[in-house]
């Protein structure tokens, strides 16, 4: 029997599913692309279903053995993802607060989530067989940032302003958080790919790929520090690149000590990213003062009962810190809203049922004057929407991919770990829990899980 991927039709379908996934990643967070996204999801789902059928057919024809009970654990992220979809349906029929709006989300957003899971699974299985092809997948994200850069340069040529505080409203991404989400995905994927290539030399990449990685990371760092000016993006980028420097540096040093041979090149490999981080941090700090009194702002913000200004800042204004300085609005609001969101989850453990603005519906039960609509933390908003069960299922699906990767010998393991960690952090600090962002989350969970699935062994 020919191995999977050896026949021409399968090769073509594999290329098609990677192209569709790459294009989706390119346009998912861009404004005015909903029709294209829906078309890609519909076509991608059909291709994914055929590919999944081909995989299952290949296994049955080959006479493979049924997996042992321990092997079922490698499907945990997918199982939890589908369980989340089942919980959403159960919530609609038994716990719905606004059945009309909840049905609208169920028949639109959650239907696209199902399509995203199927496409992510099929794409992940292809990348499991051919890890090098993942670079075509991340190319889609890179292209979206090239488009952002071209658009920014066009506006700059007209205004003559290098830094435009409100540019993000008219940018191709439409807001700051889309830039953070997609930029983090690209940087984390490159961190995992490059770490694996440098440490294990598998898979082996030609030098143009390393240039593509460097150019992509530099473009995204410029975008989050200057073009869009987002502290979330800077924070995510620093954490991802710093973790890469520490991991690669420590691993290379340990390898050389074991061999009894030290090489100065390893210091250069880790020094270059460190210098880049310092340069971009300095650039960001020169135009963003939100970090100046960050701790003092948070200290005031978490006192939601003692300092009620967060409920309606237009009415009460912004409070002052212990030192007498006015709080930085963004710091204060987000921390206070997140605190109020956590409190509301404890009061509504099964959730309100809507991905969008559940906090605004629930918060008034405890704080009638509150005008907020979102906590600006995806995990909190998801908990408000579908309660503790929904939060545990989704978080469990993402965290289980990291657990599986830590136990795996797959060449994709470091990519999976870095991307999953990026998603975990980004969804903690950003408002990315509705519409296309939730589709991207479940696409990535399915993709990462499938990249790690071990082929079943045939009976001897």
Secondary structure layout plus pairing:
Layout (H helix, E strand, L loop, with lengths): L7 H20 L6 H29 L13 H20 L3 H9 L1 H21 L4 H26 L7 H4 L5 H25 L6 H21 L3 H29 L5 H21 L8 H8 L11 H4 L12 H19 L10 H5 L15 H30 L5 H17 L6 H17 L8
Helix pairs in contact: 1-2, 1-5, 1-6, 2-5, 3-4, 3-5, 3-16, 3-18, 4-5, 5-18, 6-8, 6-9, 8-9, 8-10, 8-17, 9-11, 10-11, 12-14, 14-16, 16-17, 16-18, 17-18
Brief summary:
The protein is an all-alpha fold and 460 residues long.
Structural write-up:
With 460 residues, the chain is mainly alpha-helical. The protein is built from 18 helices and no strands. α2 (34-62) crosses α5 (109-129) and α8 (176-200) packs antiparallel against α17 (413-429). It starts with 7 loop residues before the first helix and ends in an 8-residue tail after the last helix. The relative contact order is 0.14. Residues 61-70 have low confidence and may be disordered.
């Amino acid at each position: 029997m020919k191995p999977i991927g050896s026949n021409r039709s399968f090769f073509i379908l594999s290329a098609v599913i990677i192209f569709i996934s790459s294009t989706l990643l390119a346009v998912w967070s861009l404004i005015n692309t909903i029709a294209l996204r829906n078309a890609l999801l519909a076509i991608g789902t059909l291709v994914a279903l055929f590919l999944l059928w081909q995989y299952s057919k290949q296994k049955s024809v080959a006479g493979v053995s049924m997996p042992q009970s321990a092997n079922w654990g490698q499907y945990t992220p997918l199982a939890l993802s589908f369980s989340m979809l089942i919980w959403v349906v159960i919530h609609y029929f038994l716990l719905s607060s606004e059945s009309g709006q909840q049905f609208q989300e169920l028949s639109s957003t959650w239907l696209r989530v199902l399509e995203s899971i199927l496409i992510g699974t099929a794409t992940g299985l292809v990348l499991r067989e051919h890890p090098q092809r993942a670079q075509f997948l991340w190319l889609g994200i890179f292209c979206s940032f090239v488009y952002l850069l071209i658009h920014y340069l066009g506006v700059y040529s007209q205004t003559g302003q290098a830094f435009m505080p409100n540019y993000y409203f008219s940018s191709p991404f439409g807001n700051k958080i889309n830039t953070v989400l997609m930029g983090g995905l690209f940087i984390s994927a490159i961190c995992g790919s490059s770490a694996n290539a440098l440490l294990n030399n598998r898979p082996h990449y030609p030098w143009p790929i390393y240039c593509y990685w460097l150019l992509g990371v530099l473009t995204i760092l410029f975008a989050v520090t200057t073009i869009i000016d987002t502290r979330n993006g800077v924070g995510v980028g620093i954490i991802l690149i710093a973790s890469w420097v520490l991991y690669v540096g420590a691993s290379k040093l340990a390898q050389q000590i074991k061999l009894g041979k030290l090489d100065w090149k390893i210091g250069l490999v880790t020094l270059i990213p460190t210098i880049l981080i310092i340069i971009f941090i300095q650039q960001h700090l020169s135009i963003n003062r939100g970090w100046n009194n960050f701790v003092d702002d948070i200290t005031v913000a978490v006192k939601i009962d003692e300092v009620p200004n967060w409920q309606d800042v237009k009415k009460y204004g912004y409070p002052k810190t212990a030192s007498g300085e006015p709080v930085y609005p963004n710091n204060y609001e987000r921390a206070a809203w997140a605190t109020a969101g956590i409190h509301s989850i404890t009061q509504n453990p099964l959730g309100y049922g809507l991905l969008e603005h559940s906090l605004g519906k629930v918060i008034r039960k405890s704080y009638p004057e509150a005008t907020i609509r979102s906590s600006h933390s995806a995990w909190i908003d998801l908990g408000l929407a579908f309660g503790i069960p929904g939060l545990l299922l989704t978080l469990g699906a993402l965290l289980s991919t990291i657990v599986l990767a830590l136990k795996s010998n797959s060449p994709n393991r470091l990519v999976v770990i870095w991307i999953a960690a990026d998603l975990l952090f980004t969804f903690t600090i950003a408002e990315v829990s509705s519409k296309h962002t939730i589709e991207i989350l479940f696409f990535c969970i399915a993709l990462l899980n499938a990249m790690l699935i071990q082929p079943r062994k045939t009976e001897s």
